[in-house]
Amino acid sequence: MTSQSQGIQQLLQAEKRAKDKLEEAKKRKGKRLKTAHYRLQREKEFRNKQTNVMGSQGNLSAKIEEQTAETVRNLTSSYHKNMESMMKKLLSTICDINPEVHPNFRHAV
């Protein structure tokens, strides 16, 4: 009978150790899940902040490109509108020469 009670005691102790190991494993798993959840939450917050910052920069970049394109269009329009008159003024200044004596010129008499 003592060998049977020792066997029963050993089985009970083994069962208790298994139960303790199972509880430890559950605690570790819970801790890992909390850590993983926290990490996912922080990554999500980071991505949101990054999107806000990069989105702002993207909008700013698009706005600058739009302004640049508008300026180029204005300059091109102005160039085509004023090119003819400027060429006429330039050619008239170069080709229409009025010979005059400079006011500082002194007659050597």
TrEMBL record:
Keywords: Hydrogen ion transport, Ion transport, Transport. One of its GO terms (molecular function) is ATP hydrolysis activity. InterPro entries: V-ATPase_G. Residues 14-26 have a biased composition (Basic and acidic residues). Residues 1-32 are annotated as: Disordered. Residues 1-12 have a biased composition (Polar residues). GO terms for cellular component: synaptic vesicle membrane; vacuolar proton-transporting V-type ATPase, V1 domain. One of its GO terms (biological process) is synaptic vesicle lumen acidification. Pfam families: V-ATPase_G. It comes from the Eukaryota. Subunit of the V1 complex of vacuolar(H+)-ATPase (V-ATPase), a multisubunit enzyme composed of a peripheral complex (V1) that hydrolyzes ATP and a membrane integral complex (V0) that translocates protons. V-ATPase is responsible for acidifying and maintaining the pH of intracellular compartments and in some cell types, is targeted to the plasma membrane, where it is responsible for acidifying the extracellular environment. V-ATPase is a heteromultimeric enzyme made up of two complexes: the ATP-hydrolytic V1 complex and the proton translocation V0 complex. Belongs to the V-ATPase G subunit family. This is V-type proton ATPase subunit G. It comes from Tauraco erythrolophus.
